[in-house]
Amino acid sequence: xxxxxxxxxxxxxxxxxxxxxxxxxxxxxxxxxxxxxxxxxxxxxxxxxxxxxxxxxxxxxxxxxxxxxxxxxxxxxxxxxxxxxxxxxxxxxxxxxxxxxxxxxxxxxxxxxxxxxxxxxxxxxxxxxxxxxxxxxxxxxxxxxxxxxxxxxxxxxxxxxxxxxxxxxxxxxxxxxxxxxxxxxxxxxxxxxxxxxxxxxxxxxxxxxxxxxxxxxxxxxxxxxxxxxxxxxxxxxxxxxxxxxxxxxxxxxxxxxxxxxxxxxxxxxxxxxxxxxxxxxxxxxxxxxxxxxxxxxxxxxxxxxxxxxxxxxxxxxxxxxxxxxxxxxxxxxxxxxxxxxxxxxxxxxxxxxxxxxxxxxxxxxxxxxxxxxxxxxxxxxxxxxxxxxxxxxxxxxxxxxxxxxxxxxxxxxxxxxxxxxxxxxxxxxxxxxxxxxxxxxxxxxxxxxxxxxxxxxxxxxxxxxxxxxxxxxxxxxxxxxxxxxxxxxxxxxxxxxxxxxxxxxxxxxxxxxxxxxxxxxxxxxxxxxxxxxxxxxxxxxxxxxxxxxxxxxxxxxxxxxxxxxxxxxxxxxxxxxxxxxxxxxxxxxxxxxxxxxxxxxxxxxxxxxxxxxxxxxxxxxxxxxxxxxxxxxxxxxxxxxxxxxxxxxxxxxxxxxxxxxxxxxxxxxxxxxxxxxxxxxxxxxxxxxxxxxxxxxxxxxxxxxxxxxxxxxxxxxxxxxxxxxxxxxxxxxxxxxxxxxxxxxxxxxxxxxxxxxxxxxxxxxxxxxxxxxxxxxxxxxxxxxxxxxxxxxxxxxxxxxxxxxxxxxxxxxxxxxxxxxx
Length: 822
What we know:
Distance between the termini: 43 Å
Largest sheet: 9 strands, mixed
CATH superfamily of the largest domain: Glycogen Phosphorylase B
CATH topology of the largest domain: Rossmann fold
Structural class: alpha/beta
Shape: globular
CATH architecture of the largest domain: 3-Layer(aba) Sandwich
Helix content: 40-55%
CATH class of the largest domain: Alpha Beta
């Protein structure tokens, strides 16, 4: 990067108003905030200065938005989430304030390339996948549609790990995203709260009805605030993240006695709370740390909310009328018990009244039907770590079970399933049930997922409270996932249909009129080609692998999990590899299969799938008989910034989860908005996407959720299915026998045996349908005009899947607060 600046350009007197004013401010920031002259400034200095110049303008609007939030007629929303996968914030803020081009010009005048320095900003390591990215989209949309909101989470210093590969195996390394500090955040040391653990519960002196929890361990939660800028900068909301600190950072008596490690024990215990996102929970210590993290941020957030409410209204009986606290999945479910504790033990409300206020205030979004993701904690762990909360769980459970028994329509088995305590084995507290019982609204995130919630995990609670479950299909912010990540397509749309869609993304439907227009198709395809060239260059840079942008870019990027079926995709690649070598005379569509995603550190099979993908890539990519026809690329350390390059470059989007197991998905929406065709099952939001883009413009295959459930009930023999599918049988045999792992021929035998023996995720059951669907995709690809038409229609018809629409539905149906637009 050329940061040398002619000496004349450094003279403030030479700069004129307009863009030059911004350049002056950047120079002034360098000098007075960082103590540097432009001639010695490094790229990170330029980035930090540019951010602070824009941030000053954000702060003005932030303060005004905060004042407006104190309007008694406005209800505040508090969004509690263990993850906020916000990615880089610079482009978000610059774009939403309408300052992108001004800042680009100002930096250019100073010899600095905005794109180069913006790429230096690290991804905030505050999330793992769709749950965290949805929370980030929601925060931006709440500001955009004028909902006064705070997001609450943890300021993880290392967050989700940085993923590297060693001989194809995933290696987890610390994500040091705070190495250069975070110019977007503000430490609020004055907003610090004590959070306790362990200890005893006693009666208040002279009052055997009131309980007092006396924790044996206390830590300090310190607030760090990040402004969240809405579109056009009309509202700026707050993302408040908590960092843990010891109350006494060092025990000097122990240190001076020579116990240097012991002297810092409190510091270490506090530090672990905000160090790593999702610590491995395969050990009791890991489970305890997760529960500690969840309580730590929930307790700090509720103290903050209660203090803010009391300072304005003075009476907690109105909390549910003035505040909406939303639980993003079960991670913050302990907040239900914590609010009950605050209401009863600190503010003197009786049990029944506190329960009424709690249920009026809380709402809960469920994101999964997977049993392991519906958290539960051993009773003995909760009893030891949060003894008062365990008492409260028992108390509200008695209210819940009495209500169910009074209905006189629930069997003993139903009541056992409703209970907050699971007594089928080790007694455990069901956090999903606690979140459900303690909320007035429970929503799913796609129409199918919501229906399945009513029929499966929450069937009995739904019978008890038939009006609580509702659907709010997920959405994505078009500012991040179209305007910023795909400026070429954005500009083409502006030139073609005008700027209206920038404020109302549903107006993209006007592009339908151009879907068959040859001239427009050529421009649309040209944008896609340039995006593919950018991704191809990144692959060479990071992996040294060359890919042809004229090939079909087939992309599956998401968390690695067996239900998401990356394994199905890999096995099909092996089958195609065998077919290309066996039938070279056929006309094969050149294809590059891209993968990206992280496996949880303790998830053995997911890590094995990553290794398999890399082993298959190594063999296929080096085989001259398939060169130019098939390549496999697994890009490490998938994050938001990488997604912003991969999503606009995709021709085909892989959304192939086992039907009934993906709650919604949001990657499917991002790809389709950017003109990719989807190959997928009728799972999650794919169902609604098919309705919106049209059945002819999405490639659906495989068993439905009902058919999957039926096969599992009736018994299913995967061996019989495999025996009837020569391509599948050959592919499984190749993998199982060590063709792709000659250094360890038995490496994948267990993984393949899982398909032969149980096939819980229906890989074998759906394989032939998947391969047929892929050949249908090939046929469409061979007709460039037809492919372009379908791609354009996907972009044109995806406006409904905006997170602005989703948030307006939350505001209208759950939070009871007004919004603007739409």
